[in-house]
Amino acid sequence: MRYIRYICIAIFALALISVALANRDMVELEVLPQEVAGWFAVTPSVQLPLFLVILGSIVAGLLVGFVWEWIREHGERAEKARLARETRRLEREVARLKGEKHKGKDEVLALLDEAS
């Protein structure tokens, strides 16, 4: 299974390298549309290789997806934490009740009773 993972990583790496080599031309990336840039009297733009724009877009999309999923799962994580707290509380209560049940008994009999 590990080798399959390494093969997949190698294929993805080769694909990314081939995209980068095929798209080395410089492109101008404008931060604001021309209409909006005219309002502020600025035209922010940067010259980048096309493959950086493509790979940057992929990374940005992944980050947005990860954050979106993390926010979406907040309710499930909160419920799991609540159930874990309730489980710990109930385990403490069971231990306390067993201690009260065996109070005043012989220790050996209490251990045998607790084991069954």
- Strand content of the residues, in percent? 5-15%
Rg measurement, Å = 31 Å
The order of strands across the largest sheet is 1-2
* Oligomeric state of the chains present here: single chain
Shape: elongated
Overall strand count? 2
Give the biggest beta sheet.
Answer: 2 strands, antiparallel
Residue-averaged pLDDT, rounded?
87
Distance between the termini: 43 Å
SS-based class: mainly alpha
DSSP helix count?
5
Spans of 5+ residues with little confidence (pLDDT < 50)? none
Instruction: Spell the H/E element sequence.
Output: HEHEHHH
Helix content: over 70%
Overall description:
- The protein has 116 residues and is mainly α.
- Helices cover 76% and strands 9% of the residues.
- A two-stranded antiparallel sheet has the order 1-2.
- Helix 1 crosses helix 3.
- InterPro entries: LapA_dom.
- This is LapA family protein.
- Keywords: Cell membrane, Coiled coil, Membrane, Transmembrane, Transmembrane helix.
